[in-house]
Amino acid sequence: TQSVVLLENNGVLPLKEVKNVLLTGPNANSIWAMCGDYTYPAMSYFWKKVDYKSENPHIVKLLEGMQNHKPEGVNVMYSRGCDWTEEIETKYGELGDARAWEYELLHRKVDAGEKADKAEALQMAKNADVIIAAVGENVMLCGENRDRQGLRLPGKQEQFVEELIQTGKPVVLVMFGGRAQVISGLAEKCAAIIQAWYPGEEGGNAVADILYGKASPSAKLSVSYPNVELDAL
């Protein structure tokens, strides 16, 4: 919890007087938002040297943490809702360099093993007292030698959060990843915003404790958030 930053809170946090919580977003039930570059899960997947075993070490995802630490009487609903991005693959063969082998440039779509159903998530939002939107990047989108064209939330996450806001339910934005994102279009509309970065093996428990008020986020920003992408150029 000492690395997590509370960016905004209009009083919705901690989640004390709620019964039904909807957890949604591509980072809600994914290990790839918990640990950053040069960690065992990331490197085993990236280099494909060994098969990553989910229990070695066990990575606590946000959904698991919210289920583990929920107060009595709280119902945690879950639907993935949207994905990070799509897969793009480009291969380079003859690079004109005697030292060059066949290079492969691969932007991986990390398979979460479940379908992202936006309609399902929006339907579940109708029965929620508060919505937790776990968004941002993952270790395959943010790390060494991984570039993006912009700093907005990747894929259709921003549009998805806008639709969640339009339900009229308070939305708590929980952002994962290794850098600041441009969220100026969402910042004033969300009830609360948390920057979780890559919170580590116990990250799901730590963020859940903050949401439920069992722990306080005690970090401060070490970077400035750009209002628009041009500010970061």
UniProtKB/TrEMBL annotation:
<keyword id="KW-0378">Hydrolase</keyword>
<dbReference type="GO" id="GO:0045493">
    <property type="term" value="P:xylan catabolic process"/>
</dbReference>
<dbReference type="InterPro" id="IPR036881">
    <property type="entry name" value="Glyco_hydro_3_C_sf"/>
</dbReference>
<comment type="similarity">
    <text>Belongs to the glycosyl hydrolase 3 family.</text>
</comment>
<feature type="domain" description="Glycoside hydrolase family 3 C-terminal">
    <location>
        <begin position="4"/>
        <end position="229"/>
    </location>
</feature>
<dbReference type="Pfam" id="PF01915">
    <property type="entry name" value="Glyco_hydro_3_C"/>
</dbReference>
<dbReference type="GO" id="GO:0031222">
    <property type="term" value="P:arabinan catabolic process"/>
</dbReference>
<dbReference type="InterPro" id="IPR002772">
    <property type="entry name" value="Glyco_hydro_3_C"/>
</dbReference>
<dbReference type="GO" id="GO:0009044">
    <property type="term" value="F:xylan 1,4-beta-xylosidase activity"/>
</dbReference>
<dbReference type="GO" id="GO:0046556">
    <property type="term" value="F:alpha-L-arabinofuranosidase activity"/>
</dbReference>
<protein>
    <submittedName>
        <fullName>Glycoside hydrolase family 3</fullName>
    </submittedName>
</protein>
<dbReference type="InterPro" id="IPR044993">
    <property type="entry name" value="BXL"/>
</dbReference>
